[in-house]
Write a structure and sequence with these properties.
It is built from 14 helices and 11 strands. With about 325 residues, it is α/β, with parallel strands linked by helices. The strands form 4 sheets. The chain has a 5-stranded parallel beta sheet. This is Aerobic cobaltochelatase subunit CobS. GO terms for molecular function: ATP binding; ATP hydrolysis activity.
């Protein structure tokens, strides 16, 4: 083990975070943090808007080594919340997309041929889970409800606070680093997806879900918060236009809830739309490229009606709209 790796693995939080000043949140327990930002600490986003209940749940994970599962609609800021909390704690954070191609070997490791002093030798190369487990790292599994069953059972033992990992091939039992933390994000609460929006997700083993200490839902932010984010991210947009964009998103979400639309306007979509406006200087064309073109053709007239109502402009040519009536 090199001196740099040894220093990294021995590192522990050395200060306490003032959560009221940092997050505008008063919590009844101390929250540890690192005084210096090192490798893998996310870049802080000064425009980020925190949701207090979600931040409190995430801080429980960092302060008390609780396993935290965050679920909610796409583009609501689940992974970003964990990353931005970690950024303000100077806590290294690594995200892994738990798609169907991630295998047990990717998490645990495998024997590989490597070069040592000019010679080819076979040695065990640890996977991302083993690597993170031995370091002061917050490991975030994104798309948790899309993981393969055999991979999920590898993770299950670690869901206990002091869960140790047994490497059968190495005859080793790994004890997690004192500053190792585990989080997950998903579009569903582990019960599967009945909406049809999230193809590829699956119902999770309920014995495993029972091991997550904290489960929190993150919905879309209130209009005022979304406006603040857009205004901070895209200062070139005037406030009236931002307000109209957020109002349009609200109407689309309401229509989705009533079963009239099958596609949601997320905060990510709003940001993309605003960026497109800056490139094209045409709100209608920017919106078509950001959202409308992925809507079902039969639903586009309704979206165009919302656009007209909120931005007082035509989104679809009348001749095009008439084809659907």
């Amino acid at each position: 083990m090199t001196e740099a790796v040894k220093t990294e693995t021995m590192s522990i939080p050395d200060i306490l975070c003032d959560t009221e000043q940092t997050f505008g949140l008063d919590v009844p327990w101390p929250v540890p943090a690192f005084s210096l930002a090192k490798a893998h600490v996310p870049e802080p986003d000064p425009a980020f808007q925190f949701v207090p209940d979600v931040v409190r749940a995430i801080l429980m994970g960092f302060a008390h080594n609780r396993r935290v599962y965050v679920h909610g609609a796409h583009g609501s800021g689940k992974s970003s919340h964990i990353e931005q909390v970690a950024a303000r704690l100077n806590w290294p954070c690594v995200r892994v997309n738990l798609d169907g191609h991630i295998t047990r070997a990717d998490l645990i490791g495998r024997d590989m041929v490597v070069l040592r002093d000019g010679q080819q030798v076979t040695e065990f190369v640890p996977g991302i889970l083993v690597w993170a487990l031995e370091r002061p790292v917050a490991l975030v599994f994104d798309e948790y409800d899309a993981g393969r069953p055999d991979v999920m059972f590898v993770i299950q033992r670690l869901l206990e606070s002091q869960g140790r990992l047994t490497l059968l091939d190495q005859n080793r039992v790994l004890t997690p680093h004192p500053a190792f933390r585990l989080f997950a994000t998903a579009n569903t609460a582990g019960q599967g997806d009945a909406s049809g929006l999230y193809a590829g997700t699956q119902a999770l083993n309920q014995a495993q879900m029972d091991r997550w200490h904290v489960v929190v839902e993150l919905g879309y932010m209130p209009a005022a918060q979304e406006q603040a984010i857009l205004q901070a991210r895209l200062p070139s947009l005037d406030s009236d236009r931002v307000k109209s964009m957020v109002a349009l998103a609200g109407l689309c979400r309401q229509a989705y809830g009533q079963g009239d639309l099958s596609t949601l306007v997320s905060l990510r979509t709003l940001i993309t739309w605003g960026e497109n406006i800056g490139l094209l200087n045409d709100p209608a064309e920017a919106f078509r490229l950001a959202f409308l073109n992925r809507c079902d053709e039969t639903e586009r007239p309704l979206v165009a009606e919302f656009f007209q109502r909120c931005l007082d402009a035509e989104l679809i040519q009348s001749s095009y709209v008439s084809d659907f009536y």
